[in-house]
Amino acid sequence: MKPIFHVNPVNGPFEDPGVFVRIMRERRALLFDMGHIGRLELGNLLKITDIFVTHTHMDHFVGFDTVLRGVLRRDMPLRIFGPENIIQCVEGKLKGYTWNLIKDYPLKIEVFGVNGSYISHCSFYAENGFERLDNPKLDFNGVLTAEPLFKVKGLMLSHQIPVMAYSLEEDFHININKAVLDEMSLPVGPWLSDFKKAIREQKSEKTFIINGKTFTIDELMNIVTITKGQKISYVMDVSPTAGNIERIIPFVKGSDVLFCEAYFLERDMDRAIERHHLTAAIAGRIAREAVVENLHIMHFSPKYRHCAEELYNEAMREFRGD
Ligand SMILES: [Zn+2]
Ligand SMILES: [Zn+2]
């Protein structure tokens, strides 16, 4: 199975957390958190259409300027999601510059701030010098964005302040069976992408002309097998409370990869409580109980710089029991 999401942490585990997700076959990418993101090449940065910010502590948000600098002349809009105060934070960042020469730039920034059962939505357009425009509130039922290929869900947790956890889910994965394709003497080609798109969009009436012959979607269905889609979860900066943990487990259930903070070791639990962070053991326990395929821990306290392996060992002991 060819994965549609290519997932990479932006930095090392002691640096600002963040995960860059390329969506294969679409010239676009998603970003989870934007702390220091200087390592992202401009070409990758320009592909980012949606950014999901857990909260606006500096180590998760300082990269806003880098993103803005990169996409300023772009015509593809930029969407930013986060807890409700993300709107004030983006507005504050934009107010930090002078914008008299950008009226003909096409960039549109849409910001979505989640608060309980609703989402506040504000727009900042270059043509208006990035003045804030308030849009009607949207209902929030857990899903932040739903597209034919995937959806992103958000879960509000606590880090003394509101913090969002995210999951990125491909609805289902369409695998092309090359052997059946050969048997039916059908060529590989761009029509396969259109075919997959039609399945996802449930356009059952659509037909395909291949080698001069017309096929309905139904007639082509035996070239595909449908399997469970990819699921990626991202959980950073969460107070180590039972309430948070109980809510994270069902949310990240069955993830192919869970990116989870492991800021402290269990022996520093008092610090974890004081600083509102998870421990490596808690990350491991969440991954085990949520039956996650792979656990990727990150966002370590600098105090463990000389013993990072202890964090991995502690998380893995809880996760896999070894
Ligand atoms: Zn942090
Ligand atoms: Zn934080």
What ligands can be seen in this structure?
zinc ion
Q: From the 3D coordinates, which CATH architecture of the largest domain would you assign?
A: 4-Layer Sandwich
Helical stretch tally: 11
Radius of gyration: 22 Å
Broad shape = globular
Strand order across the largest sheet: 1-2-3-4-5-6-7-8
The biggest sheet amounts to: 8 strands, mixed
Structure classification: alpha/beta
- CATH superfamily (homologous) name of the largest domain: Ribonuclease Z/Hydroxyacylglutathione hydrolase-like
Q: First CA to last CA: what distance?
A: 29 Å
List low-confidence stretches: none
Instruction: Count the beta strands.
Output: 18
Order of helices and strands: EEEHEHHEHEEEEEEEHHEEHEEHEHHEH
Overall residue-averaged pLDDT value: 95
Estimate the helix proportion, in percent. Answer: 25-40%
CATH class of the largest domain: Alpha Beta
CATH topology of the largest domain: Metallo-beta-lactamase, Chain A
* Percentage of residues in DSSP E strands: 25-35%
Count of domain modules: 3
